[in-house]
Amino acid sequence: MENKRYYRSLTRNMITVMILVSFAPLLLISVIIGYRFETSYREKVLDHLDELVQKHQQNINIFLNEKLAYIKVLANSYTFEQLSDEAFLEQKLNVLQEAYGGVFVDLGVVNDKGIQISYAGAYKLVKADYSQAEWFKKAITRLYFISDAFLGLRHQPHFIVTVKKQSSEQSAWILRATIDFEVFNSLVESVRMGETGSAFIINREGELQTKSRLDPLLGKELLRQVLSEEGGQAVGERAERADTGLVHLIKTRNRITDRDVVAGEMKSNDRELIYVTTPLKSGEWILAFLQDEADAFSDLRQARRLAIGIFLLGGLGIVIMAVVLSKKMVRHIERADQEKEMMNEQVIEAGKLASVGELAAGIAHEINNPIAIMVEEAGWIEDLLTEEEFSETENRKEFGRALSQIRTQGERCKEITHKLLSFARRTDPRTLEVQINELIEEIISISEQRSKFSNVKIIMNLDPALPEVSASPSEVQQVFLNLINNAIDAIGTGGGTIEVTTRTENGIVVVDVADSGHGIPKAILPRIFDPFFTTKPVGRGTGLGLSICFGIIKKLGGDISVNSSVGIGTTFHIRFPLPGRSQGER
Amino acid sequence: MSTMVLLVDDEVPFVETMTKRLNKRNLSILNAFSGTEALEVLEKESNVDVVILDVKMPGMDGIDTLREIKRVHPLVEVIMLTGHGTIESGIEGMKLGAFDYLTKPCNIDQLMTKVQEAKDLKSMREDKIRQARIAEIALRRGD
Cys staple from A145: which of A40, A91, A139, B19, with CB 3.0 to 4.6 Å? Predict the structure, then answer.
C-alpha cells in the first residue's frame, strides 16, 4: 500500500516535471513570437492603410483644388457683367461640362447681398437669396471657399466652390459652382478594403460629407476618438474634453494639419474598429477609413487560431506522452525494485541456508562419534546378556527391549545427521547431463514399497522427448525423493494418488509433483522452504526436506514453486535450466 | 588361527567397547588411537590381517594412514570407518586400495561380515603368492 502510494506520487512528479519542462519554453516562445508577430502585423496593416489614405487625400485635394482652379480661371477671365449674362454663363457651363463630364452641376453669380444674379444649370435658382446661407457668410469673407456638403434649396446633398471677386470698391461678387456630389463621392467610395473597410469624409462637426454605409453617429464618435488621440495623454484632460464638447475642442485646439495621419483602434456598439484619418481642406474635413478589426486582421486571427490549434494539439501530445512515458518508466522502476527485492530475499535465503548448512555439518560430525559409542555400548550390553548367567534374569526381556530401542534411536540419529550433512554438502555435487525421466523412474521404484504400504498410487506422465539437463544426479534424486516422501506423508494412511509429470515449457524442463493430500494452509505456505520448518508431529520430520530441495534447485539455477489448496492437494513445480543456461554457482 | 584385527580410532571408549565386542566374536584385536600409532603397531605385529581405520582423526588422518599402510604392508586389508559427512573420504579410501567402508554408528554383524570378507581376500592373495613362490622355487630347482 505504502509502495503503491510512492509509485503514484513518483508518476505524478514525473508527469509534472515533464509537462513543465516541455511547456515552459513552448509557452514562452509562443507568447513572445506571437506578441512580436501580432505587433508587427498590426503595424504593417496600419502602415498600409496610412499610405492608402494619404494617397487618396492627395487625390481628393487635387480634385478639389482643380475644380477651384477652373472657377478661379473663369472668374478672373470674365467680368461681372459678362458672367451676369445667363446665356454666357450657360455657355461656360456647357464648356466645363463638356471638358470634365458632369462634375460641374451648375454655375451662379451671387452679389454681395447674397442674391443670385445669374444662374446656369438644371435648377431654377435665379434670384435665389443666399444671404442667410452658411456657405455665403463664409464665402463672402474669403477669396476661395469650398463648402461642406449640404442640402440647400434643391434638397439634394451637394457642395459648392466659390471665388470672390471685387468689382468696385464697394461691391464684391461671388462666382459659385456646384460640384456633383456623386462624382466626388465615388472618389472616396473607391477606397475599400476587405469586406468592411470603407472611407468617408466628415466635417469638423462630425457630419458625414460623403455617402456611407456607416451609422452617421460613428462619424462623431470617430472624431472624438481622433481628438483624444491628438490631444494630451493625461486622463484628466480627456475627461475635461468630454465635458466641454467637441465643437469647442476643435475650435480651441485646432491642431489638425494636412500632414497629420492619425491611426488607432476604437470600440463602437460592440464593434472593434480600426481607423485611419487624415485632414482634408486644411483641416476642415477629415478623410477617415474605418474597418472592422476582425476583418482587417483576419489573416492574423487565422494565423493565431492555427497557432493556438497547433499549441493545443502539441500540448495534448506532450501531456499524453508525459503520462504514457512516466507510467512506463515507473512500471520499469517498479519491476526493477521488485526484482531487486527478490534478489535480496534470495541472497538472504542463500546466506541463511549456507550458515545453517555449516552449522549442520558441524553438529553432524560432532554428534556421530558419541552416538557410535552409545550404540556400541548398548551392543556390548546386548552381547553380555547373551551369556548364560543373564539368560534367566527376571528383567532379561525388558533389557532387550531397552537396548533395541537405543539401537533404533541411534539409527534415527544417524538418519538425521545424514540428512543434515547432505543438506550441507550434498553427497555428490558433480554436474552431469542427466535425463530427468530416468531419475524419476528410479526414485519411484525406490518409493514403491512405501507408497504401497500407504495405499498411494503413483502415476507417471513423462514426456519422452524431454531434453537432458545439467545437474548432479544424486542431488536431483534427493529432491524427488523428498517431494515424493512428503507427498506420501501428506496423503496419510487414507490413500490417494501422486502424479509426477514432466514437460517442456518455453525450452525449460518442468517437473510437476502433485498429490491428493490435505494441502498446505495459505498462512504457512511462504515458510515451507525454511530450514527446520515442519508440520509433522515431533520426532517425525526434521523440517529439512524442502529446504534441501530449495537449496539444490536454486544452486542449479532452477526454480521451485508450490500451489496448494487445503483439502484438494499440493503441486510442486520444478524448473530446470537447460544445459548452458544454468546460472547457479557450481 | 583367529583373525588378527587392528582397530584404529581416536575415540577411546569406542575402541574399548568395540574391542570387547569383537573379542567376544573370536577376533584378536589390537588397538591404536592415532594413525602413527597404527603404523607402529603394524611394524611390530606382522600377523595383522585387517585394519579397521577411522577416517577422521587428529594428526595423521585415515586417508594418509591408509596410503602409508598400503605402501608398507600391501597385503593388509583396510576397512574404512566414516562419519556420514566423510562418505567421500570412504570412497576415496577405496580408490586408494581400501577393502570397503562402513558408516558410523555401524552394525556389528555387518562389520563382522566385512572383516571376514577382507580376511578371506587376504588369505587368497597370500595363497596365490605362496603358490607363485613355490612355482618359482620349483622352476629354479628344475634349472
Answer: A139
Task: Flag whether pLDDT at A106 surpasses 80.
Answer: yes
The H-or-E segment that residue A352 falls in is helix A298-385
Measure in Å the smallest separation between the Cα of B18 and chain A Cα atoms: 7
| Residue ranges of domains in chain B | 4-142
- Longest C-alpha distance within chain A, in Å? 193
Which triple of cell numbers denotes residue A186? Answer: 465615388
- CB spacing of B56 vs A375 below 8 angstroms: no
CB within 8 Å: B14 and A372: yes
Measured between alpha carbons, how far is A157 from A179 in angstroms, rounded to an integer?
10
User: Could you write out the three-class secondary structure of B83-124?
Assistant: CHHHHHHHHHHHHCCCCEEEECCCCHHHHHHHHHHHHHHHHH
Cell numbers 475627461 correspond to what residue? A239
Q: Which CATH number fits domain A2-174: 3.30.420.40, 3.90.550.10, 3.90.180.10, 3.30.450.20?
A: 3.30.450.20
Q: How far, in Å, CA of A220 to CA of A222, rounded?
A: 5
CA distance B27 to chain A (A): 14
Class of domain A429-586: alpha beta
Q: What is the ipTM of this complex?
A: 0.85
pTM of the model: 0.47
How many CA atoms lie within 13 Å of A147's alpha carbon, on the beta-carbon side? 26
Say how far apart CA A417 and CA A91 lie, in whole Å.
149
How large is the average pLDDT for residues A385-397?
A: 77
Quick one: CA torsion of B108, B110, B112, B116, rounded to 10 degrees? -170
Looking at the domain covering B4-142, what would its CATH class be?
A: alpha beta
Longest dimension (CA), chain B: 58
Of A377, A349, A340, the C-alpha closest to A553 is A349
